[in-house]
Amino acid sequence: QVWALLSTAVEDNYIAGKDDVSIGRGLVLLPLLQQCLEDTTDQASSSSSGGASSGATSLRLSLRAAAGQCLVVIHESRMQLGLQEENQIGSRNGGDDDDGDGTKQNADGSDAGGVSIGVSNLNQYENPSHNDAKFQQGSWESTEWEIIIDEMSARIAELAVESSHHISKKAKKELRAIFREYQTTLIDNELPTPEVVHFRGGSLELTTWKEIVQLDFIRHALQGGFQAQLLTNGTLQLIFGLSANIVSQQANYGQGYSQLEKRLLLSKTSEASKMADQERIKKRRQRHNVKNHFLTVDGEDI
């Protein structure tokens, strides 16, 4: 999970690319990720000890989920490199073709004006249908990693329907849903299900695995303070591409704030109110000491 998070801060070529000088770090990790996905020590422990502990089994399943997450991030970067290459070829060929009747056409023969996927960020197309938002180019075919990718994709498909008797039904359902998402990206080359974050004044839609990995980590770190930080933290707004103007529209001291935002930012129990109270107490104590200074001995407060 840490590797997946760190990979969101580097270019796709450093993750899934290869040239005469360097190779993407994600490609180097593929054998290790396969080992994590194929881990069957829980079954071995169950047969030898009469049943593995639920805690150990949950840890192994979490390891598999983390390995799957790294794999889809690598796959997404690989597909992105294909998109970039396609766009570069299109630029060298003079862009879109005209079919003679005034209608522009893309390289695949379809009319231009449909879904437009950006080079640097897959979610920068305008109002696409989610089902149409597939990676258009980029492939593992005829590469040295084709076999291992196929094997891991098959393993992900198995985990999407696998049942374990050592975890709760809720955890089993969540893990199956996670691996089904991975399977959709790896086999069908589709974007993950969009993650929508609602906040006062608008909403934020995240449509790539890199963005979702960032969101999951920040939510876990901030817990209940995520909404407040999203409204006030410029760094967080920069990470998710939020306009500070949109977020600051609600800054008229409570006008338009939701109940949660009022409780976090404006209530008497908020962090800001606590700090203000401490400052008032400090100043009151200082005034009291100055007022009663004549009662002290040798200038020292009683």
From TrEMBL:
InterPro entries: IFRD. Residues 85-137 are annotated as: Disordered. Residues 118-137 have a biased composition (Polar residues). PANTHER family: INTERFERON-RELATED DEVELOPMENTAL REGULATOR, INTERFERON-RELATED DEVELOPMENTAL REGULATOR 1. This is Interferon-related developmental regulator N-terminal domain-containing protein. It comes from Craspedostauros australis.
